[in-house]
Amino acid sequence: MNTKFSKWGFLFLLIVSSTGFTSCEKQETATASIEVVEKYTATQGTVTRFRPIDGAELKIYGPTGSSIEAILFTDAEGKTTFTYEYEAYLNCDVSYLGRVSEGNPVKFELGKTTSTTIILPE
Hints:
Helix content is 17%, strand content 51%. It is α+β, with helices and mostly antiparallel strands. The chain is elongated.
């Protein structure tokens, strides 16, 4: 009987210790830094440059049928960030003053911050 009890006790201890150590682990997340810019021509039409767009609306969404959807706005530097709990490629639509750029892929990698620049069409 002691042998039977020690086997069950060992099994119980093993289960408790294995779940106890993993439940406190910090979950890694994936963050994307997205910059929205527009192209313009400077210096009397000879130099092409990019300027950030403040207040552009971004809609981040997953594939058809998924429930992932977020609406974000860019800051004065034309940037915004979005954190996601999985590694994935999500789509991003951008709109600003009637101009739209749809279906831009945004990469999310666990434990990293990726950067994406979207050029808004004229």
